[in-house]
Amino acid sequence: MTKKKSKGTVKPKENSTDDTSKMQKILGHRVRIKHKNQRQKEFTTLIGEKEIVIATGVPGTGKSYLSIGKALELVQNKSNNYSKIKIVKPAVEAEENLGFLPGDLKEKLQPHLASSMDIVDKIIGEQNRVKMEDEGIISVEPLGFVRGKTLDNSIVIIEEAQNISPHQMKTLLTRIGKNSKYIISGDLGQSDRFKRFTDTGLYDIIMRLKTMDEIGLFVFNPEDIVRNPLISKILNKYGKDDNFIDLNIFDKPTKKEKNNEEEFKPNISKLNKLLINVKYKLYKLSI
Questions:
Q1: Distance (Å, rounded) from C-alpha 123 to C-alpha 32?
Q2: pTM for this structure?
């Protein structure tokens, strides 16, 4: 009799549907966000539903914590097919010039990126964050480093978006790849780079993209502050000019407004033709 060859132990294939991901092995537990109010739940739900989510509002409402926490939850769940988290921030100083900073490039950028790393450490611990960085699962990068990259299978968290120009924001948005999600957050009332909030890339994309179904918009109000109730009182003392943004700008246009826009387009076309004719006549007169 011929003995049947032993097939041995078949190793499971490692793929995106494997429940035991690299992240799960590092952490040993599921990441769970602790919501402090209903508004925070609504925000994280919106992140799960939309391909791009834009959030603004007063400080102390948990925008960064919720964005990073939800991203960790989504990446840990391999059914989503997200494999990386990239946290992107502009290297903008808060009305100060720190001058020359010693060390290599990573050490020079560390002061600008530290606040995001602190949030990750708060959720999963510093040791786990370092391990995930080594595995390439999570990274915190300055804005300039993202230029030219195509971001596939990634959750990209863009923080401090009030310090990003419209051109830089356009560059970031066009980097989105297959099976990726963007979470963009910032406080329109606290830009260190622009005097008027209407000049920021954050305001620009809100106004340009607010009618798109793939885009989720979320505004945190002073009553949503969870860090410290004193923040709301402080903001009130500074007055509306410094921290109040008219929330009506985020409303999607009504059918009537859309019709008005369509009626206005032909008028612009007529005006352009008139200007061309005037320029041509002036040119003829100058010959």
A1: 9
A2: 0.74
